[in-house]
Amino acid sequence: MTKHIFWIASYPKSGNTLLRSILSSLFFSDTGIFNFELLKKIVGFEEVSRLRKCYNTRPENINSKNWKEKNVLIFENMAEIQKKINLGFSEDFAFFKTHFNGKNFDGKSFFINDFLRGVIYIYRDPRDVCVSWARHASLSTSESISFMLNETASINWVDGENFKNYNNNIPVYLSTWGNHIKSWIDTRFNCPFLILNFEDLVYNKSDTIEKLIFFFEKNYKIKITNKNLKIENILNSTSFNNLRNLEIKNGFNESVVNNKKNNFFAVGKKEQWKTKLDQNQTNILENKFASIMERLKYKSNN
Question: Whose CA, among 21, 104, 143, 233, lies 20 to 30 Å from 203?
Fold first, then answer.
């Protein structure tokens, strides 16, 4: 087996795409100037084409099963799905975005330790995740809260380069927001592991880019050329204003997963929840996720 996968993992709407924008500009651009084509260098793992390469998880073999049976079958075959030949690349290792929970409901692991080259996990204040997920999925904030509290919550795999939902509801298992985070940050990986948060990625971006560079230089002996130029250009070209303008001008395929009315890059600020959630909704999230929020240093509104 080869250590060929570097996971960029998160719960949905937690900054994964922004992190991929920064990393792709850092590693796959000479200047650090971002464009959406660079995101093709860090693709999503959850594309149905990968299931089709494993006999047991071919859609025609699992479409008729119930949610639990599908979930079990996919996790039982992760080692096959994640083989280098089935992921479709020949390099030493590749980045892959994922929203999968680190373990399914019966404790089966998503990641295959023998394949792991590295992991970055990014998280975000659950109150802001609630607001952003509601906008992205065309839900009310109350429906978004219910989704985040659902231990069997899942999203769909997508079909093809245009990130269209696969309509037969093959699940990307999430569980609750808190369970998702703990499934990753409480795992003892046998590879370099970095934890980041959305707020630092937006409000302390320069320091966070330096942290990323140090992480890769220390653990992989990767020398970043044109570092100062790249940092300056990344700061400018991955600002939310620029990403929003690029989406308006050129479109963005990941924005059409659930919602054609709202832009994928909408606000990109912290503490949106203070004006979008009422006190009862805030209390529900804070009470449910009190311990993990305290651990991640998110202050209660009470």
Answer: 143
